[in-house]
Amino acid sequence: MDAREDSRAFGAMIERRITDNWKDICNRTKSKYIPHPGRRTIYDFASQHNNSFYGFDVKTKDLDSDRYSDGGVCAVTNLLKFLANEKAIFVIAEFGHHKAQNDTSLRELDYIKLAPFHLLPADIYRIENLGTGQVRLNSDINSVFDKIEWDRPINKFFDIFVDLAVEHYEKVGKTAKQRANNMRKFRDAGYSNF
Predict the structure, then answer these.
(1) Helix (H, G, I), strand (E, B), or coil: what is residue 139?
(2) How confident is the model at residue 1 (pLDDT cuts 50, 70, 90)?
Protein backbone atom coordinates (compact mmCIF):
# COMPACT_ATOMS: atom_id res chain seq x y z
CA MET A 1 0.00 0.00 0.00
CA ASP A 2 1.10 3.56 -0.51
CA ALA A 3 2.95 5.07 2.44
CA ARG A 4 1.59 8.21 4.09
CA GLU A 5 3.25 11.08 5.96
CA ASP A 6 2.40 9.59 9.36
CA SER A 7 0.61 6.69 10.99
CA ARG A 8 -2.62 8.66 11.40
CA ALA A 9 -2.78 9.39 7.66
CA PHE A 10 -2.05 5.75 6.87
CA GLY A 11 -4.88 4.71 9.18
CA ALA A 12 -7.23 7.17 7.46
CA MET A 13 -6.37 5.58 4.12
CA ILE A 14 -7.20 2.10 5.47
CA GLU A 15 -10.51 3.43 6.84
CA ARG A 16 -11.33 5.01 3.47
CA ARG A 17 -10.77 1.72 1.65
CA ILE A 18 -13.05 -0.08 4.09
CA THR A 19 -15.68 2.66 3.84
CA ASP A 20 -15.68 2.34 0.06
CA ASN A 21 -16.33 -1.41 0.35
CA TRP A 22 -18.35 -1.67 3.58
CA LYS A 23 -21.73 -2.42 1.94
CA ASP A 24 -20.15 -5.21 -0.10
CA ILE A 25 -18.37 -6.61 2.97
CA CYS A 26 -21.68 -6.67 4.85
CA ASN A 27 -23.40 -8.41 1.95
CA ARG A 28 -20.68 -11.07 1.70
CA THR A 29 -20.84 -11.75 5.46
CA LYS A 30 -24.66 -11.81 5.43
CA SER A 31 -24.71 -8.87 7.83
CA LYS A 32 -27.01 -5.87 7.77
CA TYR A 33 -25.20 -2.74 6.63
CA ILE A 34 -25.47 0.11 9.15
CA PRO A 35 -24.64 3.61 7.86
CA HIS A 36 -22.19 5.54 10.02
CA PRO A 37 -24.16 7.94 12.24
CA GLY A 38 -21.43 10.58 12.44
CA ARG A 39 -18.20 11.59 14.11
CA ARG A 40 -19.40 11.23 17.72
CA THR A 41 -19.26 7.42 17.84
CA ILE A 42 -16.54 5.14 19.19
CA TYR A 43 -16.55 2.99 16.05
CA ASP A 44 -15.63 3.52 12.40
CA PHE A 45 -18.04 0.98 10.85
CA ALA A 46 -21.09 -0.93 12.03
CA SER A 47 -23.21 -3.89 11.06
CA GLN A 48 -25.87 -6.12 12.53
CA HIS A 49 -25.54 -9.89 12.49
CA ASN A 50 -27.86 -12.41 14.17
CA ASN A 51 -29.62 -9.60 16.10
CA SER A 52 -26.34 -8.26 17.52
CA PHE A 53 -24.99 -4.78 16.76
CA TYR A 54 -21.26 -4.65 16.03
CA GLY A 55 -19.16 -1.49 16.03
CA PHE A 56 -15.71 -1.86 14.45
CA ASP A 57 -12.85 0.46 15.37
CA VAL A 58 -9.88 0.46 12.98
CA LYS A 59 -6.45 0.64 14.61
CA THR A 60 -3.24 0.74 12.65
CA LYS A 61 -0.08 -0.47 14.38
CA ASP A 62 3.20 0.85 12.96
CA LEU A 63 5.65 -2.01 13.49
CA ASP A 64 8.81 -0.11 12.54
CA SER A 65 11.11 -0.03 15.58
CA ASP A 66 11.77 3.70 15.27
CA ARG A 67 8.06 4.62 15.23
CA TYR A 68 5.47 4.96 17.98
CA SER A 69 1.88 3.80 17.66
CA ASP A 70 -0.49 4.92 20.39
CA GLY A 71 -3.04 2.49 21.76
CA GLY A 72 -5.81 5.09 22.24
CA VAL A 73 -9.35 3.75 21.99
CA CYS A 74 -12.08 6.05 23.40
CA ALA A 75 -13.42 7.68 26.56
CA VAL A 76 -14.36 5.39 29.46
CA THR A 77 -17.97 6.57 29.63
CA ASN A 78 -18.50 6.23 25.88
CA LEU A 79 -17.24 2.65 25.95
CA LEU A 80 -19.47 1.67 28.88
CA LYS A 81 -22.54 3.34 27.35
CA PHE A 82 -21.95 1.47 24.09
CA LEU A 83 -21.50 -1.92 25.76
CA ALA A 84 -24.03 -1.63 28.61
CA ASN A 85 -26.76 0.71 27.35
CA GLU A 86 -26.76 -0.28 23.69
CA LYS A 87 -25.91 -3.95 24.38
CA ALA A 88 -23.51 -3.73 21.43
CA ILE A 89 -20.25 -5.50 20.67
CA PHE A 90 -17.17 -3.32 20.19
CA VAL A 91 -14.58 -4.91 17.91
CA ILE A 92 -11.02 -3.75 17.37
CA ALA A 93 -9.77 -4.29 13.81
CA GLU A 94 -5.99 -3.97 13.97
CA PHE A 95 -3.77 -3.59 10.91
CA GLY A 96 -0.04 -4.16 11.61
CA HIS A 97 2.23 -2.60 8.97
CA HIS A 98 5.88 -1.77 8.27
CA LYS A 99 8.07 -0.13 5.62
CA ALA A 100 8.44 -2.18 2.46
CA GLN A 101 12.01 -3.48 2.17
CA ASN A 102 12.48 -2.72 -1.51
CA ASP A 103 10.55 0.55 -1.72
CA THR A 104 10.32 2.96 1.24
CA SER A 105 7.42 4.76 -0.45
CA LEU A 106 5.29 1.68 0.27
CA ARG A 107 3.96 0.00 3.41
CA GLU A 108 3.42 -3.75 3.78
CA LEU A 109 0.64 -5.22 5.89
CA ASP A 110 1.94 -7.85 8.32
CA TYR A 111 -1.41 -8.87 9.73
CA ILE A 112 -5.06 -8.00 10.22
CA LYS A 113 -6.57 -9.12 13.55
CA LEU A 114 -10.12 -8.60 14.80
CA ALA A 115 -11.14 -9.11 18.41
CA PRO A 116 -14.09 -8.09 20.58
CA PHE A 117 -12.79 -5.50 23.04
CA HIS A 118 -14.40 -7.10 26.10
CA LEU A 119 -12.61 -10.42 25.49
CA LEU A 120 -9.04 -9.06 25.48
CA PRO A 121 -6.71 -10.08 28.35
CA ALA A 122 -7.25 -8.02 31.51
CA ASP A 123 -3.71 -6.67 31.56
CA ILE A 124 -4.05 -5.01 28.15
CA TYR A 125 -6.48 -2.33 29.40
CA ARG A 126 -5.35 0.96 30.92
CA ILE A 127 -6.94 4.35 31.56
CA GLU A 128 -5.18 7.70 31.34
CA ASN A 129 -5.94 11.45 31.61
CA LEU A 130 -7.52 13.53 34.31
CA GLY A 131 -10.88 14.17 32.61
CA THR A 132 -13.35 11.38 32.00
CA GLY A 133 -10.46 9.01 31.31
CA GLN A 134 -9.17 7.71 28.00
CA VAL A 135 -9.10 3.95 27.40
CA ARG A 136 -5.79 2.76 25.97
CA LEU A 137 -4.21 -0.59 25.17
CA ASN A 138 -0.89 -1.67 26.67
CA SER A 139 0.03 -3.75 23.64
CA ASP A 140 -1.13 -4.64 20.16
CA ILE A 141 -3.90 -7.20 19.59
CA ASN A 142 -1.64 -9.45 17.54
CA SER A 143 0.76 -10.12 20.43
CA VAL A 144 -2.05 -11.13 22.83
CA PHE A 145 -4.34 -12.86 20.33
CA ASP A 146 -3.71 -16.33 21.79
CA LYS A 147 -4.68 -15.03 25.28
CA ILE A 148 -8.15 -13.79 24.27
CA GLU A 149 -10.88 -15.22 26.52
CA TRP A 150 -13.41 -16.12 23.83
CA ASP A 151 -16.03 -17.32 26.32
CA ARG A 152 -15.78 -14.41 28.84
CA PRO A 153 -19.26 -13.04 29.64
CA ILE A 154 -19.70 -9.27 29.44
CA ASN A 155 -20.26 -8.98 33.23
CA LYS A 156 -16.81 -10.48 33.82
CA PHE A 157 -15.36 -7.74 31.62
CA PHE A 158 -17.31 -5.12 33.59
CA ASP A 159 -15.83 -6.55 36.83
CA ILE A 160 -12.32 -6.10 35.43
CA PHE A 161 -12.87 -2.74 33.79
CA VAL A 162 -14.90 -1.00 36.50
CA ASP A 163 -12.25 -1.90 39.11
CA LEU A 164 -9.62 -0.41 36.81
CA ALA A 165 -11.71 2.74 36.31
CA VAL A 166 -12.35 3.18 40.06
CA GLU A 167 -8.61 2.86 40.74
CA HIS A 168 -7.90 5.42 38.01
CA TYR A 169 -10.46 7.96 39.26
CA GLU A 170 -9.28 7.65 42.86
CA LYS A 171 -5.69 8.25 41.76
CA VAL A 172 -6.51 11.25 39.55
CA GLY A 173 -8.75 12.65 42.29
CA LYS A 174 -5.73 12.79 44.60
CA THR A 175 -3.61 14.28 41.80
CA ALA A 176 -6.24 16.92 41.01
CA LYS A 177 -6.51 17.86 44.70
CA GLN A 178 -2.72 18.26 44.93
CA ARG A 179 -2.70 20.42 41.78
CA ALA A 180 -5.45 22.62 43.22
CA ASN A 181 -3.41 23.04 46.41
CA ASN A 182 -0.33 23.97 44.34
CA MET A 183 -2.37 26.66 42.56
CA ARG A 184 -3.56 28.08 45.91
CA LYS A 185 0.05 28.20 47.17
CA PHE A 186 1.15 29.92 43.95
CA ARG A 187 -1.63 32.50 44.32
CA ASP A 188 -0.95 33.01 48.03
CA ALA A 189 2.77 33.52 47.33
CA GLY A 190 1.99 36.41 45.00
CA TYR A 191 2.39 34.40 41.76
CA SER A 192 6.13 33.95 42.10
CA ASN A 193 8.21 30.79 41.94
CA PHE A 194 5.72 28.22 40.68
Answers:
(1) coil
(2) low
